[in-house]
Design brief:
Layout: H1 3-35, E1 40-46, E2 52-58, H2 81-89, H3 96-102, E3 106-108, H4 115-120, H5 122-128, E4 134-136, H6 138-152, H7 157-182, H8 185-201
Parallel strand pairs: 3-4
Antiparallel strand pairs: 1-2
Helix pairs in contact: 1-3, 5-7, 6-7
Length: about 200
């Protein structure tokens, strides 16, 4: 990560903590009333092929033991009504400002993968994770809706895993590597504002 990108991240994360802090507090109170504790979901993700970190989100699903893999149609019944609304507006990702301040994430970059997929596709993620993972990115913007449609059709964990590995992983990696070749602060600004526009255009 360049020093310009790190300054960009620190400045805007600090600014958003001040601006969005009251909204996050309100969301936490609302979640506590609506669905109880725990309020946060912390999942292991990979910063580099060797280094994991805890990715923070607001909890959007019922808690079960032994949860693994990406979310597909087989997990749809676990998404709470409040969680579905949070996901649609990407409000569940507010706590990732903490990850940005810690240096786990950047605002823009490839979405941080699960360890199991890094282990299964080591050569691919060795290249993708040369960029610091991000809250949003080219693949998040261009492929997010299509990925959701693909995974929503899956009814078993095995089917979800197959579709994700066979279709989603390679397509997202191609976009992540395009971003990596063209990355600069101005491009990051464009992708951040495109993400904001994408969120406000969504109806759910």
């Amino acid at each position: 990560m360049t020093w310009r990108k790190r300054i960009f991240d620190l400045f805007f994360a600090s600014l958003l903590v001040v601006i969005l802090g009251p909204i996050l507090i309100w969301l936490l109170i609302y979640l506590w009333i609506k669905q109880g504790r725990p309020l946060f979901y912390v999942a292991e993700r990979m910063k580099t092929p060797e280094k994991p970190f805890g990715l923070w989100k607001l909890r959007t699903m019922t808690v079960v033991d032994g949860d693994s893999g990406v979310s597909g149609g087989n997990k749809a019944s676990r998404v709470t009504p409040t969680g579905a609304w949070l996901r649609a507006k990407r409000l569940d990702e507010f706590p990732q400002l903490w990850n940005i301040l810690r240096g786990d994430l950047s605002f823009v970059g490839p979405r941080p993968p699960l360890r199991e997929y890094v282990d299964r596709f080591p050569d691919l993620y060795r290249e993708v994770l040369k960029s610091r993972p991000g809250v949003t990115g080219l693949a998040s913007i261009r492929f997010h809706k299509h990925e959701n449609r693909l995974l929503e059709r899956c009814s078993t964990p095995e089917e979800t895993d197959d579709v994700y590995c066979r279709i989603c992983v390679p397509r997202k990696a191609r976009l992540d590597l395009i971003y990596q070749r063209h990355q600069n602060v101005c491009y990051d600004f464009d992708l951040v504002f495109e993400t904001i526009g994408f969120v406000f255009r969504r109806r759910k």
